[in-house]
Specification:
The protein is mostly helical. Helix 2 runs antiparallel to helix 3 and helix 3 packs across helix 4. The radius of gyration is 18 Å and the shape is elongated. About 9% of the residues have low confidence.
Length: 186
């Protein structure tokens, strides 16, 4: 179990024992990434913000539903995915993942940063060309850093299916990038 998972579970236990500040820490820790993840489904940042608030309200109102054998992050993303899909069904919209830039936090020189940004945008553009399941599995693995087990829970599939799906998605992405002269390494 990762240190982050242990820390999250401890925060949630503190919240269950009456420390409201602990839940605020959880919200602050995951709010932005959760909104970004949801916006990939809704293609609308304002709707994603509303859904993320719903996720946190759900956790507040259903304290007993969280199973401590799973990471809190996985639980949050699983609820977020379900809420986003329910929203789309309700609104009868087609799932489409939009391109949003990530912030660069390291201090590279300007040329490297520009080159990275061009390649990053190209990768994102090529990911958008893939099937929705490929888009989701790549987003969860490459950008959010989830492991197979967590992705399986979020996508409601078994680990074997996720391994195959991720392998095929990476293979397809690599082919698209190589066709455009960009070398893709895992």
């Amino acid at each position: 179990m990762e240190a982050n998972d242990i820390e999250d579970k401890e925060l949630y236990k503190k919240y269950l024992n009456g420390q409201k500040e602990a839940f605020e820490e959880i919200v602050m820790k995951y709010k932005d990434n959760l909104i970004y993840f949801i916006s990939k489904y809704t293609n609308n940042i304002y709707v994603a913000e509303d859904i993320s608030q719903d996720v946190f309200v759900y956790i507040l109102l259903n304290k007993d539903k969280y199973d401590f054998k799973y990471s809190l992050k996985t639980y949050l993303y699983m609820i977020a995915k379900c809420r986003a899909i329910n929203y789309l069904k309700k609104e009868s919209r087609i799932i489409r993942i939009d391109n949003q830039e990530r912030l660069y936090k390291d201090t590279k020189n300007l040329e490297d940063e520009i080159l990275d940004k061009v390649i990053d945008n190209k990768i994102k553009d090529d990911i958008k060309k893939l099937k929705p399941n490929y888009q989701t599995v790549l987003e969860l693995n490459l950008i959010e850093g989830f492991k197979y087990k967590e992705i399986a829970i979020i996508m409601n599939k078994n680990i074997g299916d996720i391994k195959i799906l991720l392998h095929r998605a990476k293979k397809k992405l690599k082919k698209l990038l190589e066709e455009e002269g960009i070398k893709y390494e895992e």
